[in-house]
Structures are given as structure tokens and as C-alpha cells.
Design goal:
2 domains, single chain, Aspartate Aminotransferase, domain 2, Aspartate Aminotransferase, domain 1
Length: 363
């Protein structure tokens, strides 16, 4: 397998040795070993701190999309109304996911290089549609943007929307996420971004209001949330727990908390500012319409036209640098540097930018 000495992909990111080491559990099932329940409870408590919530946190085996699907299926029935605030690949994708399970979705569209600013459009959709759920994405990784969410929570309360569903997969730990303050009922996370774990775990904070709806819907699939409501009390999980993945999450969350959340936010902000300043000095243009809306965890850049994406990517990788392309309408047009978690490191980012500068000079 090809590896690169300068990993800057926007997830899965480089996994630190101590997190890799934490996953070396080679016996037993969480259903039979009391140590696993203790580990699960401890990890949940740490994730609550990252989410800034008193709500329960469910830890599931599977990449972050598991939480996104499971929360929709566990809370929506065919015919339920959803307002999807969509500003990028994942925002529009979540709307399509909700439609695929029978929900009736009204999309409030936002250009991919922008974030939420037209609150009147959202308010009009809520007043007209009276949805069961609002969906949004905090960090649109393919676009490198970060949406404001506090006002969305206020509107959810004002219009008495039962559920606010937010993808925080690429922001949690690298930017403030305030689940309780912002009124988020389903806050969805994944292991492979800021937490810097392998891509095998998902987790989500679930409000009391969401649990009541989960009970009513009674969805029975593998990704169902309902069995987790009593799993810790009964020590009976719905499937064999991933002890390795939970142990890695525990170490990862502990690393961030030991650093201090505010210190982690500051580290990500400093690295992001440095990255964007150097890129613009090279003559590259950032994809987000304004620097103020750019995410602290990922930078999206317009591909330099003389080279094109395939050749640009080939030249970077030939020099040991792996960055990410993008998806959907941005594919081939935008490349991304993931300065999140273990990769929010000034030395690593500096080396990456040196390579980009060299490629541009020799183009």
C-alpha cells in the first residue's frame, strides 16, 4: 500500500501511535466483559464534554455515515416533513437520504461556496412547512466552509420543530460545538476526522426529545438507536461492540480534553490561518467566498488551471504530499488540505505548503 510522508487528506487523517496502540484488544466481547462497559461509559462521558452536552451519547460500530443514516431512520417515518438547510455536498446529500426513506423534504439551498446567511428563507420554510426535523451540516468538508448554527437552534425553538439534526463530523474537537446551547437534538460525529482515529466508529448526542421520538418510530435495523437507550443499564448491546474502536475513541477524546478544548480550537485556527495566508501568497484562490466562513479544520482551494487536478495531484504525490480532491460539482475543480486533529500541526502544514509551492514554480 502506498503511503505518503506528508499526509494532508481531509479524513481519514493520520492516526497517532498512541491511538493505534489503544486498539490492541484481542479477546472478549463487550456483552460479557465488565471492563468494556466501564470503557464505554468513560468514553461517553468524554464525548459529552466535546459536544458540550448533558445528553446521552451513543457509540456505534461503523464509519460516520452510520450515525447519519441511523438518526434519520430512527426518527422519521414516511410522510414526515423535513427542512434541509443545504450548503454543500453533504447538506444536499442528507436531504436525499431523508427522501429515500419516505420523508417529504423542502430544501433551503445555499451556494456551495457560501454559508447560512438568509435566515428569512429558512424562517419562511419553517413557517410554511412545519417540519418534524431540520437538518444541517456544521462543516461542509468538500467546500471547506463552517455554518453558523446558534440562530438555527433559536428558530427551531421558535417554530416548535421537534428535532434539529446536525452533522458535526468534521468540526467536533476542532471548532466549538455547543449541542445544548444551540438546541441540537441529534449531533452526529465520526472517528476519523479531528479525533484522528481509524474510520470505524460513529457517535452521536441524542436529546431527551429525540429519544421519545425514537421510541415512537421503533426502527429495528442494525443502525437503530433505540437499543442503545437501555444498553448500558442492561449491559446488552444490539451487536458485538467494537472494543478496539471504543478504546481508540477513549484515548482520542482524552487527548483533546487534556490539551484543553479552547487550546485545540486555537491550534486549529492558527494552522488554518497560516495555511490560507501562504496559499494566497502563492497566487492560489480559496474556494469559500469569504475567509470568515472558512472552516478551521479544512481548506478548500481552486485547482490551478494550467495543471488541472489529475496532473496537479500526481505531482504532489510524487513529492510525498497527499491532499484530497472534492466531490459532486466540485470534483476536479477544488482540492483540499485537512489540517484537522493530528494534522493540525504547523510543521506538517509548512512542509505540505513547501511542496505545493515547488510544484507551482515548476509547472
Amino acid at each position: 500500500m502506498q503511503t505518503y510522508p506528508i499526509p494532508m487528506t481531509p479524513g481519514p487523517v493520520m492516526v497517532p501511535p498512541e491511538i493505534l496502540a489503544a486498539g490492541q484488544v484481542n479477546y472478549g466481547s463487550g456483552d460479557t466483559e465488565p471492563e468494556y462497559l466501564e470503557l464505554y461509559n468513560q468514553t461517553e462521558a468524554e464525548l459529552r464534554q466535546l459536544f458540550a452536552t448533558a445528553n446521552r451519547v451513543v457509540i456505534q460500530t461503523g464509519e460516520g455515515m452510520l450515525a447519519l443514516w441511523g438518526a434519520l431512520k430512527s426518527c422519521l417515518k414516511p410522510g414526515d416533513r423535513v427542512v434541509a438547510v443545504a450548503s454543500g455536498v453533504f447538506g444536499f446529500g442528507i436531504a436525499e437520504m431523508a427522501e429515500s426513506i419516505g420523508a417529504v423534504v423542502k430544501v433551503v439551498p445555499i451556494p456551495y461556496n457560501q454559508t447560512i446567511t438568509d435566515w428569512q428563507a429558512i424562517e419562511a420554510a419553517l413557517a410554511d412547512y412545519r417540519p418534524r426535523m431540520i437538518t444541517a451540516v456544521h462543516c461542509e468538508t468538500p467546500s471547506g466552509t463552517l455554518n453558523p448554527l446558534e440562530r438555527l437552534g433559536q428558530l427551531k425553538r421558535e417554530y416548535e420543530v421537534p428535532l434539529l439534526y446536525v452533522d458535526v463530523v468534521s468540526s467536533l474537537g476542532g471548532a466549538p460545538v455547543k449541542v445544548d446551547e444551540w438546541g441540537i437534538d441529534l449531533a452526529l460525529g465520526g472517528s476519523q476526522k479531528v479525533l484522528s482515529c481509524p474510520p470505524d466508529m460513529s457517535f452521536l448526542a441524542v436529546s431527551d426529545a429525540a429519544w421519545e421520538i425514537i421510541e415512537q418510530v421503533n426502527y429495528p435495523g442494525y443502525d437503530a438507536l433505540k437499543p442503545f437507550r437501555t444498553a448500558q443499564q442492561t449491559a446488552a448491546f444490539p451487536y458485538t461492540p467494537n472494543w478496539h474502536g471504543t478504546a481508540a475513541l477513549h484515548v482520542a477524546a482524552r487527548r483533546i480534553l487534556d490539551e484543553g478544548l479552547e487550546n485545540s480550537f486555537q491550534r486549529h485556527a492558527v494552522v488554518a490561518d497560516y495555511c490560507r495566508e501562504r496559499l494566497t501568497k502563492m497566487g492560489l484562490s480559496l474556494y469559500p467566498a469569504r475567509s470568515a466562513i472558512a472552516s478551521p479544520t479544512v481548506t478548500a482551494v481552486n485547482v490551478p488551471e494550467p495543471l488541472g487536478w489529475p496532473e496537479f495531484d500526481r505531482r504532489l504525490r510524487a513529492r510525498g504530499l497527499a491532499v484530497g480532491g472534492s466531490y459532486g460539482p466540485l470534483a476536479g475543480k477544488v482540492f483540499r488540505l485537512g489540517h484537522m486533529g493530528s494534522q493540525a500541526d504547523l510543521d506538517l502544514v509548512s512542509r505540505a505548503l513547501d511542496v505545493i509551492e515547488d510544484v507551482l514554480k515548476t509547472a
